[in-house]
């Protein structure tokens, strides 16, 4: 038997998620799959919530590895690509958006989020607007993926002539254009 560690448990839990969905992920089911007694999981995770947090972090590894913005990046292009990367990570796992919903960045992920915020502020966006832009694009992305991953017919679209990716891109453009217009307005406002 392989020695049980956090990584093995999380990987098996993500496999369980992909096979059966978030509703079927339980410590009982996971222990059975791993061939261990349920209490042995609590040695590595104090409760199911801490396991789900670890799963959510692991599911975001591809997004967390995406390049951070640099001073030469255009904030609009970067914000759009950051949202696309986030969407791809959420879509990589069944119920990925449900798993991620309600989590907050911690540790290295929090440092990355703060770097992204500083980048947006350095481009001239007021800090409050930069925070709202990041929050809005994040919530929009999670919501879009929640709908996409919901139990709906595969051929269902997001309205006349739009598929889910097109709808996501259109909504993302509206958000970014709105942030840009607000930033332009604030820059051109008489003082």
TrEMBL record:
Known DNA-binding region: 26-45
Cited Pfam families: TetR_C_1, TetR_N
InterPro entries: DNA-bd_HTH_TetR-type_CS, Homeodomain-like_sf, HTH-type_TetR-like_transc_reg, HTH_TetR, Repressor_TetR_C, Tet_transcr_reg_TetR, Tet_transcr_reg_TetR-rel_C_sf
PROSITE patterns registered for this protein in UniProt: HTH_TETR_1, HTH_TETR_2
Protein name, entry field: TetR/AcrR family tetracycline transcriptional repressor
Entries under Gene3D superfamilies matching the protein: Homeodomain-like, Tetracycline Repressor, domain 2
Keywords: DNA-binding, Repressor, Transcription, Transcription regulation
Residues of the HTH tetR-type domain: 3-63
Protein source organism: Kibdelosporangium banguiense
Lineage: Bacteria, Bacillati, Actinomycetota, Actinomycetes, Pseudonocardiales
């Amino acid at each position: 038997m392989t020695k049980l560690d956090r990584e093995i448990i999380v990987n098996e839990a993500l496999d369980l998620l992909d096979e059966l969905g978030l509703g079927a992920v339980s410590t009982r089911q996971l222990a059975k799959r791993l061939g261990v007694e349920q209490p042995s999981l609590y040695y590595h995770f104090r409760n199911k919530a801490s396991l789900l947090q670890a799963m959510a972090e692991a599911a975001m590894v591809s997004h967390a590895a995406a390049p951070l913005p640099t001073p030469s990046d255009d904030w609009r292009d970067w914000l759009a690509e950051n949202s696309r990367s986030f969407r791809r990570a959420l879509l990589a796992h069944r119920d990925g958006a449900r798993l991620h919903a309600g989590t907050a960045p911690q540790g290295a992920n929090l440092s990355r989020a703060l770097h992204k915020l500083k980048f947006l502020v350095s481009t001239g966006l007021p800090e409050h607007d930069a925070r709202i832009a990041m929050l809005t694009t994040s919530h929009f992305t999670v919501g879009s993926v929640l709908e996409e991953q919901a139990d709906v017919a595969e051929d269902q679209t997001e309205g006349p002539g739009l598929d889910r990716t097109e709808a996501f891109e259109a909504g993302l453009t509206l958000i970014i254009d709105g942030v840009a217009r607000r930033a332009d307005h604030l820059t051109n406002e008489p003082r």
